[in-house]
Amino acid sequence: MGVVNDTQKWIERIVIGLDLCPFARLPFEQDHIRLVESRGDSVSAILAELLHEIDLLDADTPEADTTLLIVPNLLRTFDDFLDAVGAAEALLTEMGHDGRYQLAHFHPDYVFADSDADDPANHTNRSPHPTIHILPWKQVRNAMQTHPNVSRIPARNMALLRGIGAENLPSLHGPKPRDLRAELSPFKCWDHHTQEIFEREGEALEDCILQNREEVISFAEFIEANNIKSYLEVGVWTGRLVTALHSVFDFERVAAADQGWAETKGFNIHLPKETSVFRGNSDSAEYKSWRKALGHIDLVLIDANHSYAAVKQDFEINRQYPHRFLAFHDITGANRWTTGVRRFWEELNEGFKLEILRPHAELELDHSIMGIGIWSEVLP
């Protein structure tokens, strides 16, 4: 059971945990993925097992949608593994299965053609043990038809893993962490469509979370790790981030301050019904009175006016009131509208600073063009 257990954790924490295959979650959660440890002592024996697994998938009522044949004892070298996969593909053609089944393959030492062995992108196909994945073509066709950007998945995955780095991949050991990626998956973040609007209009005029999904997930991990119970967002756009985080964490107190810029662009602002709301300028006397009345807030995210003067002023105002952390969006200053945030963040030389910089994988970038900075006066 050790080999199967290793593979289950790899699917759960790497393949699904990093969304490397957006089609894997549902069959895995429904227990429709068959994991089989090979007992073969030769390549021919492994091929016989492969045909047996295809027969099971061909049954009138198959027990699984797809099968992973795990080969722990043979094919440990990558070249031997590729030879065996080639033999398996030739056998499928010979048996008339090549139009009905597709083989995907994974190996602990997987290296893509024309890639270096230490390229983190190789981890998109690196598994704990040599593994041959038997995919019915009907499943592949359905995935291609239902996923909006199936052709972009490989580039997205490579960008993500290069940005994360192999040393920062989720661990396959210890207890399973909370699946915040799944909990945040219903909420749209800044993707190719948003980027197209931004490039065309000069503004991201879309009703969604105007942040990098990977950084939102990491921000949520920070909230989880630090037991954040109260949250204030200064500058909410249409309120989708506040709504997403509150749906996941059910804050004891949730608050939002905004001038209503989204409404001037024709969008509605959506906030949880429990939200304490301030409408107006975040540097006004009215805001200060409202913020004082809120009392202690664990985490304040400042994502309003991005000019240097405005960000500095929001920082100086909000640090006066009881809090644990102040956070800032767009610390990379990747475009001319956000350079003020970067300048302020770089000049902030007191207290303790944490940077959340994740690859913008939904744009197929291996680096951050946004970034979240978290500051605390007393906590490292």
List the SSEs and their pairings.
Blueprint: H1 2-15, H2 25-29, E1 33-37, H3 43-57, E2 66-70, H4 78-94, E3 101-106, E4 131-136, H5 137-146, H6 153-164, H7 180-184, H8 192-201, H9 213-225, E5 230-234, H10 240-249, E6 253-258, H11 261-264, E7 276-279, H12 285-294, E8 297-302, H13 308-318, E9 323-329, H14 339-347, E10 352-356, E11 372-376
Parallel strand pairs: 1-2, 5-6, 5-8, 6-7, 8-9
Antiparallel strand pairs: 2-4, 3-4, 9-11, 10-11
For this structure, what is the CATH homologous superfamily of the largest domain? Vaccinia Virus protein VP39
Mean pLDDT: 95
Question: What is the helix/strand order?
Answer: HHEHEHEEHHHHHEHEHEHEHEHEE
Main sheet strand line-up = 7-6-5-8-9-11-10
- CATH topology of the largest domain: the name is Rossmann fold
Biggest sheet overview:
7 strands, mixed
Number of helices: 14
CATH architecture of the largest domain: 3-Layer(aba) Sandwich
In percent, how much strand structure appears in the residues?
Answer: 15-25%
- Provide the low-confidence segments as ranges: none
Radius of gyration: 24 Å
The count of β-strands is 11
End-to-end C-alpha gap:
41 Å
Q: Give me the secondary-structure category.
A: alpha/beta
Outline type: elongated
- Count of discrete structural domains: 2
